Amino acid sequence: MNAYQYATPETNGTNPIIIAQGRTVYSDAGGATISYIRDGETEEKTLSFDKNTNYEFLTNTKIRVKSGKLYLFKQSQEKKQLNAGDLYGMPVPPETKVELADKNSFIGFAYHDGSTMRLDGPGTYEYYPLGKKSKEYTVSLAAPNDWYYARLFSIDKNQSSTAASLHLLSPQREADTEGPLITYGDTIRVPVYQKQTLSLATYLEDISGVDKVWVDADLTKDTDGDGDTKNDQDSLDPATTYGIKKGNGVSDLIIGPFDTLFTKKVRLFAQDGNGNISSKDLTLTVYPPVPDIKTLSGNTVSGSLNEVLGNEPIDVFRLRNGALTRIEPTSSDSVKTADNGTFALTAKGAEGIVLTSSGKTIATIDERTGKIELSDTSYQVAVVPASSGSPLQIQVLSPEKKVTFSENINISAASSLESVPDFDHATGTGIFIAPTAGFSFAKNTASSPNLPEGGYFTDAAHKAIAGISK
Is 158 a residue whose pLDDT tops 70? Predict the structure, then answer.
């Protein structure tokens, strides 16, 4: 029971006690009289309590008990061995629980208005305060989900009403007529070639529990043949080909892997323990993760994805003169990322690009450096310097000075443009320039009036012979 103490004229008739603001005191069947002084006042006043009443102090107050008993209950619980007679007349605070073990035992309650009520054993009773008098009362009972019956009647001045008809009380689970609340967002995003488990447990709320979750993966087809294309339980079919299946948990979905990119609408369903169903339309998007090339060392291209994904296939392509070609790895299989999302693709040994004219080889181009090596000395290499309106252009001219081949050297604003002694010392990404003997490269500043952040190739006399723009 709640720990308590009581004050009497013998204990607190001359020694006052302080009652804290908001504290409630109770009188027993004999009532009580006190003298009191509120905080901030100097005049002592007298207050009499009727039997079986309580009084809440709205300010800190100093009291002395003149007659009767005043009970003060605490929040803490304690065990006491008492004689039944010691409980006679004691106030019953809210949430008091009484257990009567013997069939011959009973307990009687008396109210302020003189009404009485007897409770017979065996049984367990708990006192719930209803607050002020009203037409409607609400009591929350801590009871397991089940069906309950009740007999209801009122007592007023010892007059009991006729007991109402039996009423079926339905706890929250049995009263639940609504489907689960689905709080998941509007989009499911899955990387291409990846299989992911989507756990929806934290996104489904229902007082009756969630018994089943499924997805209609194609809102244009009637899989179950009921005439409705938007209520099929596709994900519950073990043989489904839609790429969405039930996971190990009730609220788990296994999605993927998919080998194509797409975006489409699907419908998520959830059913609770009472058979109530709710749904939400979601957008399923299969997207490509973005690779970032970090380094090029020899024939090995290394980098990582913009998210940590393992076993993701990687292809690297070269864009040259408008043509997009796949760089062949040394293995016939596609290169795949490690568990941390990094990759290293080693290309097959490059033989170079072969330029021909009328079936005759006239030059080869190094795929890594872009160096043009003439096989026919009747042809020549020409350089068209960069200007503010066009990039640097390298041409292969025929003996008749006709352009047989040309390529532009374009550099993005974010790329690096650096001079190095040789290409073996080039690290990172960008455009690296290794001048041969007798030539050099001068890099411009951002404030240069001509080709800012670009540069010039100069001869031994430091005369500019070609410019490269950025």
Answer: no
